[in-house]
Every structure is written in C-alpha cells, then in structure tokens.
Amino acid sequence: MKKVFLQPMTVRIWHWVNALSFFVLVATGVQIRYRDIPNLATFKTSVDLHNFFGFLLIADFLLWFAFYVFTGKIRVYVPLNPKKFIVGALRQMRYYGYGMMIGEKDPHHATPEEKFNPLQQSAYFMVMLILMPLQVVSGILLWDIRMFAGWIAMLGGLRVVDIVHVVAFFLLTAFLFVHVYLTTLGRTPLAHIKAMFTGYEEVEENE
To answer: Domain limits at 87?
Structure first.
C-alpha cells in the first residue's frame, strides 16, 4: 500500500465545519418549518441557532470558494473534457450498478488533480456551484425580509424565495444521504472518512 495526499488541512477544516453547520441547520430548519413536531428546543432558540450556523456556513462557503478559485483547484469540480467525462461517467455507472457487486476495482483512482470520478464531479458541481449559492442567497433574504423587501419583490415575492430555499434544502439533504453512503465504498468502509481527518488515503501500489 501507498499513501496519497488528497485533502489539505484547509479543505478538511472546511469539510467538518460545513458538516456540523449543515446538520444543525437541517435540525433547526425542520423545527422552524414544522412547529407541531416534538420540540428539541424553543422556537426562538431554533431560530437563533439556525441564524448563527447559517452565517457560519456562509463564511465557510466563501472561504472554500476563495481557496479553490485562487489556487486554481476549482477545476476539479468542472468537467473540462466532455468526451473523457462521458466515457468516465458511463464506466463509473457500470461500476456502481454492477462491477462493485462482483468485486471489480473502482475504475477511478483519486489523485490531487482528479479527486472526483465523473459522477462525483457532476454531483459536487451541482451542489457547490448551484444549490449552495441558491441556498445562501435565499437564506440571507429570508433572514430579514424587511431589510431585503426590495430584492425579494424583484425576485418574485416572498413565496418564490421561500420555495427556492426549501427546494434547495430537500435536494441538499437528499445529497447528504447519498454522500454518506458513498463514503463507505472505499477500500474499507471507513477509508474515505479517515482520509478526511488525516488528509491521506491508502491505495494499492499499482494504482
């Protein structure tokens, strides 16, 4: 086995702050939206926690975006070669749907330059560059509807902004379940999770 350094310290810190914030936002968001469910906290506490971790998530996202843009690493999220992307995506779909069931090896071998397989790349592109900005902007507008009344009206009204926020929430939450499941598909069930703590992932020498 050999170790490949995939996750810099900045990325690992961002990841775990993002994960903590997201879990708290999901819990408090459900509490705010559905007030009849069993209460884990008062409504005011839920709102205060939601606001605090919402701004923490925004700050974390902006730091992530700045790091990836200024270091040029943002390209790992963008498929630059359409032909290579399509071929790789089909190969990866076959692996997830059949190959891994019969013991085949993952056709994608992560490197610092190509951390994600094509399916991961397209999913993270959608999540980080489309859904997260929508969630951030709609969340800020809903944080103070009086202050941002003009912007809300320009975007179609409070109902439209609220729907965007809730739909983005459901899509991001659905992605979370898929993401957690996929982390267990490494060389061992905890290999990918361990790499997000240490920065290193172990792979076979011939890979």
So the answer is: 2-203
Q: Could you tell me which residue, 165 or 106, shows the higher pLDDT?
A: 165
Residues 6+ apart with CB under 8 A from 148: 140, 141
d(CA 39, CA 30): 10
DSSP state of 35: T
**Predicted pLDDT of residue 76:** 87
- Reported as a single tens digit per residue, the pLDDT across 89-121 is 999 999 988 998 888 888 888 877 788 899 999
Q: Are 32 and 43 a contacting pair, CB within 8 Å?
A: yes
CATH code at position 187: 1.20.950.20
Q: How far is CA 115 from CA 73, 99, 112, 119, 121, in A?
A: 10, 20, 6, 12, 9
The angle at the Cα of 15, spanning 115 to 120, to the nearest 5 degrees, equals 35
Q: Which structure tokens are listed for 20?
A: 């903590």
Q: How many CB atoms lie within 10 A of CB 102?
A: 6
Number of structural domains (the chain) is 1
The owner of tokens 């810190």 is: 13
Distance between start and end Cα atoms, the chain: 9
0.90 surpassed by pTM: no
Radius of gyration of the chain (CA): 19
Asked if residues 4 and 203 have their Cβ atoms less than 8 Å apart, the reply is yes
